[in-house]
Design a protein that fits this description.
Blueprint (H helix, E strand, L loop, with lengths): L41 E4 L2 H9 L21 E4 L1 H9 L5 E2 L14 H6 L6
Antiparallel strand pairs: 1-2, 1-3
């Protein structure tokens, strides 16, 4: 197994979302790609505070952009967000919960696992 297919827990990277379809390559995965300057490697469950924060920072994830197939996000949607934006939101106290099994291992280069675990989404 290569690091290309690992999550932050060291196991196989799981899909983040296919409805809405997410990922830099729109394949459902928060994979790591050299062409992805936004680092869409962290899978989150968006909530209203984060969506509002992101929009205020200039990245409107709420409004649909049908020309590119972007439906707009609603609270509880899962999405591969830009790692730098998640870090900003974390520092601002509005970071959305993280799906660890669907978050690429490369995130650990910027965010310690302990912080990710504190922000982990729980299905239970």
């Amino acid at each position: 197994m290569t690091t290309d297919t690992l999550n932050v827990l060291g196991t196989t990277l799981e899909s983040c979302s296919v409805d809405p379809l997410t990922g830099f390559q729109r394949d459902g995965f928060c994979s790591c790609h050299e062409q992805d300057v936004g680092q869409h490697t962290i899978c989150v469950v968006v909530d209203a505070p984060f969506l509002k924060y992101s929009k205020a920072q200039g990245n409107d994830l709420i409004s649909p952009i049908l020309e590119i197939g972007f439906p707009g996000l609603l609270p509880d949607d899962q999405w591969c967000v830009c790692l730098p934006r998640w870090v900003e939101a974390y520092r601002a106290g509005v970071a959305p919960k993280v799906k660890l099994r669907a978050t690429h291992i490369a995130v650990l280069d910027d965010v310690p696992l302990e912080i990710l675990e504190q922000c982990a989404y729980s299905d239970a």
